[in-house]
Amino acid sequence: MVAKMIDGHAVARQVRAQCREWTMTLAGSGVIPGLAVIIVGDNAASRIYVANKIKACTEVGLKSTVYAFDASTPGNVVEAEIRRLNDDPTVHGILVQLPLPARMDGRRVLAAISRDKDVDGFHLYNVGALVQGETMFPPCTPFGVQKMLEYENIPVEGQNVVVVGASNIVGKPMALMLMQKDATVCICHAKTRDLAQFTILADILVVAAGRPNLILPQMVRTGAVVIDVGINRLPDGRLVGDVDFEGVRQKASYISPVPGGVGPMTVTMLVHNTVQSARRYAELQNPVHPELAWC
Ligand code: NAP
Questions:
Q1: CATH of the domain at 256
Q2: Are residues 257 and 144 in the same domain?
Q3: Which amino acids bring their CB within 6 angstroms of ligand 1?
Q4: CA 228 / ligand 1 centre spacing (Å)
């Protein structure tokens, strides 16, 4: 068996086309979805991520604005800017690019974002709402994985899902979202003893550990669906995931590559969440406009 590749670019194109349609409908009612991106400090990788997000927004017709602060800016100044953006009706999504400088209280900064504009889904309210299965803004990376599974019509209900990685931004929300879809979910992390005894049981294996070659073919059940979230830069400059791609693709039924798998979906779901926030705003302004109905 050689696995079918899940093409993240193709899924992203489909989601972006839908977002473009929504954006055009919103423009007809005078609403341009707006995203504010806050970046603090001079992290080179963060600057690249922010540039990619702005480019994706522009492609879909969103208005995005970057608010860049010097690394020495006091946290309360950043929080004050976020509160101003909370009250700005042309801004429907606010994103704080992580990581923040170590001396800054990241929780406080994220908590300043209005829960109605928290398009990354990291505000404690939205984290709690995710546990209840009611969040408005599913976190972008696991949301992207969910869209990839849907795109390939891969059933989740009743499946054994193993998530490797238990971070707040990927592993934990991924597990919650798949539980919500009635999968049986197991979460593994760095202290899991004998990782393979869990991964071998997975019908769907989602790996987000940040460790190249963590998942080897003998750890994967024949026919499993394998989603590789990891992004690792090797000493020779190559970008790889957490899965031994060449080995595992001989056993899996589906596999997502790195690059070109989950990566393009993360930024796309940010655009999606921002457009959805603008749709909700428009609907609240004009509740009788049926094509703007919030979903
Ligand atoms: P993180 O915060 O460092 O979390 C990594 C998780 O993996 C932790 O829960 C850790 O366990 C677990 N882990 C580490 N080594 C392990 C091992 N040997 N066996 C089992 N579990 C192990 O990282 P993250 O932010 O979740 O990101 C994970 C990876 O995904 C990174 O490579 C990152 O670059 C990538 N990523 C990609 C995208 C995308 O768009 N494609 C988006 C976000 C992240 P403990 O909790 O026990 O420490």
A1: 3.40.50.720
A2: yes
A3: 141, 164-167, 169-171, 188-192, 195, 208-211, 214, 229-232, 262-263, 266
A4: 11
Mean pLDDT computed over 109-127? 96
Distances (CA, A) of 181 to 82, 83, 209: 34, 35, 23
Average pLDDT over residues 219-242: 97
| Total number of domains constituting the chain | 2
Q: pLDDT tens for residues 192-207?
A: 999 999 999 999 999 9
- The mean pLDDT of 265-279, rounded to a whole number, is 98
Each residue of 148-159: pLDDT tens digit?
A: 999 999 999 999
Contact 271, 16 (CB under 8 A): yes
Give the structural domain span for 37: 29-116
CATH number of the domain residue 52 falls in: 3.40.50.10860
Residue 293 predicted with pLDDT over 80:
no
Report CA(90)–ligand 1 centroid distance (Å). 35
* pLDDT at res. 295: 43
Active site amino acids: 53, 97, 120
Average pLDDT over residues 202-229: 98
Token look-up 């070659």 returns 213
294 pLDDT more than 70 = no
Domain match, 149 and 106 both: no
**H and E: helices and strands count for the chain:** 10, 11
Same domain, 54 and 96: yes
Q: How far apart are CA 237 and CA 283, in angstroms?
A: 47
The alpha carbon of 169 and the centre of ligand 1 are apart by a number of angstroms equal to 9
Residues 106 and 144 occupy one common structural domain: no
Structure token digits, residue 125? 């309210």
Q: What is the pLDDT of residue 176?
A: 98
Are residues 164 and 206 in contact, defined by beta-carbon separation less than 8 angstroms? yes
